Amino acid sequence: MSVNREELKRMIDQIPEQDALEVYDFIEYLNMKREKEKLNGMIVEYLAKDEELIRQVQKSLEDRRNGLFYSKEQGLEFLRKSFEES
Is residue 2 helix, strand or coil? Predict the structure, then answer.
């Protein structure tokens, strides 16, 4: 869908100030949403290159298939020990 920007500007010029503030807020929301999506994409790309993380995810999937489940507390304890050892 193509938007006639001149028509859009004309419409904005004709609306009351309070409505113009809402339009401004909505445009800011759209810009933040776009930036967030871009950042999330960059994070996913970065994580996809982390071979150790991929290995850990694959191991976790394998553990789940084999019925090895851990509680939240057990997982946190494992992470604490892992960080202490490194």
Answer: coil
Element housing 84 (H / E): helix 72-85
What is the chain's pLDDT, residue by residue, as a tens digit (86 residues)? Answer: 788 999 989 999 999 999 999 999 999 999 999 999 999 889 888 888 888 888 888 998 898 898 888 788 988 998 898 888 87
SS (H, E, C) 5-63: HHHHHHHHHHCCHHHHHHHHHHHHHHHHHHHHHHHHHHHHHHHHCCHHHHHHHHHHHHH
Q: Which pTM value belongs to this model?
A: 0.50
69 Cβ neighbours under 8 A, 6+ residues apart: 63
